[in-house]
Amino acid sequence: MTQRVLHLRLAKVLARLVVALAFCSSCSLSSAADFEFLAGEDVPVCLAYAESVKTWPTPTGPCIADLPLAAHGIERITGPIQKIQFSLAEDDPTVGLRKHAFDFILRSDSNPANYFYADKLDEWRNTEKQRSIARAGLSARMEGLSPDFSLRFTVADIDNDGVNERILFQPHCVSGGNVISTITMASPLVLNSHGDVVDVERTASILRRPIRNSKARGIRATPDGRPQPLADIISHSAFGLLRFEGKTYFDFRWDASQAALSDPSDFRVVRVFVAAGRVSRAVCAFRLKAD
After folding, report:
1. What is the pTM of this model?
2. Does some domain include residue 19?
């Protein structure tokens, strides 16, 4: 067979392929998520997590806990999810817990500038009056995270001591109006053994201190001179829970633009953490190359 004939046959095959792709309405041209290891290349849980990342669609979006983890013994903790309806009445039985949770989030998880008037950020000076306005904005933001007026709880052995903890969380990704189907969490809060207040020390030591830049506050100027509030945990974090070889882990990524991150190198980075006692550490880190 001559080289000319081979070229003609190859040209016909390529032409048929182009036509098939052009008219195949059910063909998907999306690719799996592309990523690079930043840490954990030789850690079993990280290798298992990476196999699942390879199956994620591109773009992945911020709702990491809603993406599949089903490879090599790793599994996503999806529940049970308990919902408790609340009202804004002063005698509502959840008032105490909601106040304690709000105070923790206000103090530890929020950058007040994010909840000030968006068109007056160039006036932000962190004054008492401005913080009062921001507090009201944060309250409205949290009400928006629970449009069905429900507190959401799950249970997990977050510190791997053999006892499940009750965790109150805000849904980070909301879909379908008032129907919230996500299991991606913002500001997960470990509760005390009675479930009536936040366990401040365990929440801070396990779920906050290991997160890079979780205490970033204030505003920075973007390259074009616009004021940009720095990302915070309540509005820009995405947490999930998972199990591997009998241990509980949690994964985390910032859901914010690169300009809003106090450390821009955290952009598109997913980290996996494990706790032992009251100390947790990052065991894996991946950078998603497309989003």
Report:
1. 0.82
2. no
